[in-house]
Structure formats: C-alpha cells, structure tokens
Amino acid sequence: MSDIPSNEDGEMSKEELLNAIRDSIVNLDFDKSKEYTLKALEAGATPQEIILKSIAQGMEIVGKKFEESEYFLSELIVAGEIGKEITKILEPYLKGAEMKKIGKVVIGTVRGDLHDIGKNIVAMMLEAAEFKVIDLGADVPPERFVEAVKSENPDIVGMSALLTVTMVEMKNVIEALKEAGLRDKVKVIIGGAAVTEDYAKNIGADGYGANAVEGVRICKQWVSQK
Ligand code: B12
What we know:
Layout: H1 14-26, H2 30-42, H3 47-67, H4 73-94, E1 103-109, H5 117-128, E2 131-135, H6 142-152, E3 156-160, H7 168-179, E4 187-191, H8 197-203, E5 207-209, H9 212-225
Parallel strand pairs: 1-2, 1-3, 3-4, 4-5
Helix pairs in contact: 1-2, 1-3, 2-4, 3-4, 4-5, 5-9, 6-7
C-alpha cells in the first residue's frame, strides 16, 4: 500500500515513508524496512518519529497478529530482528557529541524477560539527552540492579518489562533496593508494554514512561530538581 510513491517525481513524502517503515515491519520485510528508514531520515524524519510512528506502531500490529494466531513465534522473532536493525541505523543520529553528562541511569529489562528493543531505545535516547547510561541488558535479576546501584551510584534506575509474568520482577527489584538500604538514593522509573502508571504507583516506583520520549522527559525533570 505505502509502496506506491505518490507525487509526480516518484518521491515519497516523510509521512508516507514513516508508514512504509511501519508496513515493512508488519510484512517482515528486512530490506524494505532498512531502505525506507534511510530514506525517511533523508526526508527529514527524526529518530523519535521513526520510533513512535513506525517501530512502535508496526510492533503493535505484529503483536495483534500474534494474539490472533495469524503470526507465530517465528514472525515475532523476525519482527524483533527488524526492530533491532532499524534501531542500529538510528543510533548514530541519536548519539550527541560527547558533552558533560547531566545524570546517570542504570537500566535493564527485568529477570525472565528477553524483550530489549524498547529498553535499548530508551537507553539510546537517554544518551542523546546527555545522560550516562549503564545498560545491564535483558533478563536482569534484582541482585544485578542492586550491585550496579552500589558500584555506579546512579541518579536513576530504569526497568523495562513486556510480559505480564515478568512485571512482578520490578517490585522485587524495588524491594531488593530497600533491603540494601539504597532505595532513597535513586529515583525509579519503569516502562514497557506490560506496565501502567497505576502499576508504577502500586509497586512504589517514582515514575512511569509510556514511551522513550516521556521517559527521558521525566528523567530530565528529576535531575534538574537536584
Ligand atoms: C518483538 C517481540 C518479541 C521478540 C523480542 C525481541 C527483542 N530482542 O526484544 C521475541 C521473539 C524474543 C519475543 C518473545 C516472546 N514474546 Co514477545 N513480543 C514482541 C513484540 C511483537 C514487539 C515488542 C517490541 O519490541 N516493541 C517495540 C518497542 C519499541 O516497544 P516497547 O518495548 O513497548 O518500548 C517502548 C515503551 O514501552 C517504552 N519503554 C519500554 N521499556 C521502557 C523502560 C523505561 C524505563 C521507560 C521509561 C520506557 C520504556 O519506551 C519504548 C520506546 O518508546 C510484542 C508486541 C507488542 N505490542 O509489544 C510482543 C509481546 C510483548 N510478546 C509477547 C509474548 C507472549 C512473548 C513470548 C512469551 C512468546 C512465546 N510464546 O514464547 C516470548 C517471551 C520471551 C521472553 N522470555 O521474554 C506478548 C506479551 C503478552 C503479555 N502481556 O504478557 C506480546 C505483547 C505479543 C502479544 N500481543 O501477545 N517477543
């Protein structure tokens, strides 16, 4: 559908390119997704627009197809790989010049959860906003969050979870921080498709970011208040 260039000289507009990236994720088309991402950047799309309008929406549709058994695990894996590839293309555009850091964030996807595309995007956008980011990766047990808070002394701990079965791990991390006497030393922000603002409040997190842009805004607010 969005493969058809619309204006006279055959060039696709920025909006059409953003939709075309989304559709190529849904159609599991590696080559087209990369091609359209490069073209969208050339057409002036920001990495943030590509993340929110193309990757997030494309993954949303893939997720629905998976729920409706139109797609299976193999398709989820391919969509995940495409998401990672696009993120790699965006990385240099998000990395700002080396500047003085405004704060430090330890971030990770919680234990049992392998979804790391969203977390990687948040980490990249935090770096672009001049935070120093310590990325613990995915499937991170509470002890590793505690160790990292001890050794890195961050301002903020960020956690990601995409599965309803793993979101409980966020509470475990907060409890582990409390037990280690570290809870008051850091702000805690959570995010990921499984969690909500209410859940953040329930488990005693300080904030919730529905997307990377919102997450970065909250983190910036926190460090500016220090
Ligand atoms: C790709 C994908 C996979 C890939 C992941 C690859 C990877 N390296 O990440 C693979 C194939 C590994 C996978 C596996 C599974 N998956 Co999966 N997966 C997805 C899919 C399609 C997209 C996820 C994604 O990358 N989204 C794009 C990113 C950009 O969005 P995001 O992660 O939400 O992040 C944004 C925000 O949430 C926020 N954010 C995220 N983290 C954080 C953190 C902080 C601090 C902040 C502030 C913000 C923030 O900012 C990000 C950018 O804006 C989703 C569907 C969906 N709609 O989410 C299902 C989905 C999450 N998976 C699902 C399932 C069931 C599974 C499996 C159990 C399938 C199975 N039967 O084995 C396994 C579990 C494996 C495991 N132990 O983790 C379900 C979860 C249902 C549930 N509620 O529990 C979903 C919702 C699909 C569905 N509709 O059924 N999956």
